Amino acid sequence: MSAITPLDSSTVSDLRTAVAGDVITPDDESYHTARALWNGRIDRFPAAIVQVTSTDDVAEAIRFAREQELQIAVRGGGHHVTGSAIVDDGLVVDLSNLTTVDLDAEARTVRVGAGCRVSDILSVTQEHGLAIACGSAAHNGVAGSTLGGAIGWVRRKHGLGVDGLHSVELVTVDGDVLTASETENPELFWGLRGGGANFGVVTSYEFDCFELGPEVAVAQVAYPAPDAETTSDIFRRYREFVADAPDEVTSMALRTFVPPFPFVPQEFHGAPIVMFFGVYAGDVAEGETALAPLREMGEPAMDLSAPMPFLAVHEIANEMFPSGNRYSWHSLYASELSDDLIGRIAAAGESAPGHEVAVTAWHLGGAVSDVAADETAYAWRDAEFLVSIDTTWRDPAADEAHLVWSESTWRDLRESAATLEGFYPGFPGFVSGEERSQMAYGDNLARLAELKTEYDPENLLRSNLNVTPAR
To answer: Rounded to an integer, what distance in angstroms lies between the CA atom of residue 114 and that of residue 192?
Structure first.
């Protein structure tokens, strides 16, 4: 355990009096549970964690952190892959108790608390055949995912999570409570749609809903990939498929290994595969026809394709990426799946340090690209693909091997002429400082820096993919 500068007991007592939620310090029995994240590789020791219950609690927690000169981290309800939700020796504003879901089915809007996960929202909206654009996993937190863009399972038909965002409630670093929307504080609203947690602590989100489900057509099929040549051939076939795919089809291709699911015979665990996931945002029968080519690219090693509830699509990731595993996820955007890029993906699969890693091509385009690059802070609208390095393992002794592979793969992919100079904020790259921000926010960085100057000139909210104030 790292050295923690203890807070004065009377000071902590004042904070406990000021907020309705729990205040947890290193002396409390629940401390280690409260500081634990989904990513088991993150091991940090905050001076205090405030499990807020309201916007007033958030304002009081921020005030306290400023008075005590503590760095602030903000925790939502989800992954926190990079560990930005926890800060050594600082104060964590924990929003995970803010889980209210208020659906207006007639107006097709839903307001959700910042501690909600995707499953919290869809379990309510799907009862009415409604959905929102959101992250791709049931245990994604709506807060961090949305503020970074939210690349989900209907992105090509309905866009990103930021595109369906109608308004937010936010507490500024000065303790003011604001609404941001197209008509109220519109510049702030622009920055929140892709600019991350740089401008305040968002306590609730209002989304527009659309009709979908409860069942959708789904493709889940895997092909043996015993060598790089076979992998490359399957990815080239996938490239042909997505070239003509309608916007209703959202899909991805993974060079990975057979996961250790209980329903898969143990002798097949760890076998190299190329796996396709696809979802059709529309009529189920039409979707099965549209997705059929993904099932016809050879003799599959596994085919679990079938209509399923839209919520269940998101729950697949809960099985593949359980809480407590060790994660290092990174990404790059690409203009195309060129032969060179495909070859690099195949080579990365050959050199993988374990059987729970993947290199994934997420097909974008469609409604994602229909929005101008400067219409929201999410800048990479023209990218046709997101390529992610999804590095997962369980044994701390394997940290170095997996981290070295993850970084070397990211840097090798970056050498391809098909990759763009950007990455998805949720899966950042192995760079730091100004280059890191530039790659995350692209041409929108200067405008974000001006906004940062207005709302957080002292850069108090810097435990994130940070935007430095312009002055």
So the answer is: 14
- Residue at 61: amino acid letter: A
Name the token pair of 303.
């085919």
Domain 101-212 part of CATH 3.50.30.80: no
Average pLDDT over residues 216-241: 97
Residues 6+ apart with CB under 8 A from 107: none
Q: What's the residue count for the chain? A: 471
Rounded Cα distance between 335 and 382, Å, is 8
Torsion, CA 109, CA 113, CA 117, CA 120, rounded to 10? -60
Helices 445-455 and 433-441: crossing angle, nearest 10°? 110
- Written as six digits, the tokens of 355 are 């059987």
Q: Is the pLDDT of residue 373 over 60?
A: yes
**Domain 215-414: which topology?**
Vanillyl-alcohol Oxidase; Chain A, domain 3 (3.40.462)
Residue with tokens 């989904």: 38
The DSSP secondary-structure symbol of 295 reads G
What is 9-94's CATH number, 3.40.830.10, 1.10.540.10, 3.40.50.10800, 3.30.43.10?
Answer: 3.30.43.10
Residue 167 identity: S
pTM beyond 0.70: the answer is yes
Tens digit of each residue's pLDDT (9 = 90 or more) over 162-180: 999 999 999 999 999 999 9
Using a pLDDT cut of 70, give the percent of the chain over it. 99
